[in-house]
Amino acid sequence: DGLKQCLSEFKQQLAWVERLDVTSGQVADPVSQSASDKDAVDPENDFQREMSFYRQAQAAVLEALPRLRKLQVPTRRPDDYFAEMAKSDQQMQKIRQKLKSKQEAMERSEKAKQLRAMRKYGKKVQTEILQRRQKEKKNMLNAVKKYQKGLSDKLDFLDEEQTSSQGNKKGSANQRIKKGPNAKRRYKNQKFGFGGKKKGSKWNTKESFNDVSSFRSKVAHNKGPGKGGKKALNKRPGKRARQKMKSRAR
Predict the structure, then answer these.
(1) Which residues touch 39 (CB under 8 Å, ≥6 apart)?
(2) Which regions are flagged for Basic residues bias (predicted)?
(3) Hey, CA dihedral for 149, 155, 160, 166, is it positive or negative?
(4) Which of 67, 130, 192, 249 has the highest CB neighbour number within 10 Å of its CB?
């Protein structure tokens, strides 16, 4: 009686379209022909129990759809229906940035792994070269000791050392030929020129000696404007002129 009284207190007499509640009993399996299988659902069998719930929900939907159509309530989504996503654009942007940062971190990790592998390989090669050189040096010292003690009269180790040094020299010479002049030499070539005779290139010839068309007497005898007086006559020639005078005197 108390439960019925509480139910009557909060129960609201609303129209069905506001409540949309449908009550249906157990629905028989349409595949089975006998009606005796209606109550034969094993509650311990998960598959039978879930199928019973599914058939009951399907029967409720088939009962509610005609009533909704009768009340002119649309039950199908229109083709141009626009629904907002469950996640906002800001959240999706954050997810995209996080995925991008993860991908960049993986790329950095992969590059670091490659660098470590290359360093490891370089160290290995360097160690092998040092070991080979030490072995060659040890063999040569042993051969020298044997020769000094008179245990051996062969000087093959000197020939091997000489050929190896010649090979290194040839290799370095080839490298120099391939490399060409260095930056300092190229700069000097560009600034001062190269090749050909330099010394005495400005000496007079017979034609230049006989050509006096550019001679100016006032300039030659210091009689031009601002050139006269005792100062001009006693003026010391420049360094370049003095050097030329010395070279001519020699």
Answers:
(1) 26
(2) 114-123, 176-189, 228-250
(3) positive
(4) 67
Cβ within 8 Å of residue 64, ≥6 positions away: 20, 22
Q: Would you kindly state where each structural domain of the chain is located, as residue ranges?
A: 1-30+41-71, 101-152
Residues 6+ positions from 65 with CB-CB distance below 8 Å:
75
d(CA 240, CA 244): 6
In 3D space, the residue among 137, 145, 134, 129 whose CA is nearest the CA of residue 161 turns out to be 137
Separation between Cα atoms, residue 214 and residue 80, nearest integer Å: 99
The closest of 41, 14, 16, 13 to 27, measured between CA atoms, is: 41
Distant-in-sequence, close-in-space partners of 29: CB < 8 Å, separation ≥ 6:
37, 51, 55
The segments of the chain whose pLDDT lies below 50 read 35-36
Nearest alpha-carbon partner for 222 in 214, 231, 213: 231
Left, alpha or beta for 17 (phi > 0: left; psi -120 to 50: alpha)?
Answer: alpha
- Joined together, the tokens standing for residue 59 give 């029967």
Q: Are 157 and 143 in contact (CB under 8 A)?
A: yes
Q: Judge whether 22 and 60 are in contact, CB under 8 Å.
A: yes
Tell me which residue of 29, 81, 37 sits closest to 58, measured CA to CA: 29
Going by C-beta distance under 8 Å and a sequence separation of 6 or more, which residues neighbour residue 63?
22, 24
Residue-level length of the chain = 250
In this prediction the pTM is 0.31
